[in-house]
Amino acid sequence: MSGDRTAGRLRRWLSRLAPERGAEAARLAPAAPPAGADWPVLGSKTLARFLAHLGSRPSPVLLDLGPFSGANVTYYGQRLGCKVLIADLITDLDRQAREGRPVDAATLLSNRFALDDGSIDGVLLWDVCDYLDGGAVQALARTLVKALRAGGVVLGLFGSTPRAGIGGTKFVVEDDSHVRLLPYATVLERRGLLPNRAIIRVFDGLRVTESYLLQNGWREMLFRK
After folding, report:
1. For the domain 2-29+39-224, what is the CATH code?
2. Alpha carbon separation from 73 to 92, 172, 193, 202 (Å, rounded)
């Protein structure tokens, strides 16, 4: 019964959140790329394993922290038949910055994530941590570790080389091993790099099952609870 109530709350939360996220993403995102534009494609080493693991679990719940993408929601639904929660942190942090308010990621995270413990099977973290300071990364990691069910997985991308300048990336999943990288309008700047040991320490409670240094400088890591 408790599980039914939790699923119901998550569905209601998603039904309120998704339209807001879609409208906000449309407002902030750059104009649609011209036909034939050749935006880069990231070859993922772990996405296929991430999706296969979720597909092996009954009625999985997936949390995507990247910018809203209707194509992604459709892909996850068709590929996994799962519940999808969209929580675009970059949009909210960007709004704070555009309104001239201090970018308070730690407080935003604690207020945003009213997720029950053990209610999520997988998290697509993408490159969110690249925009957060150390305290906010720790707050996010604690929240995700608590929200994951036993055996749950997290896929994250962490900058290993400096990426100067303003601007973000929208990740659009093309298949189980490839993600197209689209430019995403934001006034936020990427912060300092997290060494591997710091990442492992921050995500205490999860173990790194795979880690790869990609050609574009991101370190792709797959965690499991």
Report:
1. 3.40.50.150
2. 20, 10, 30, 28
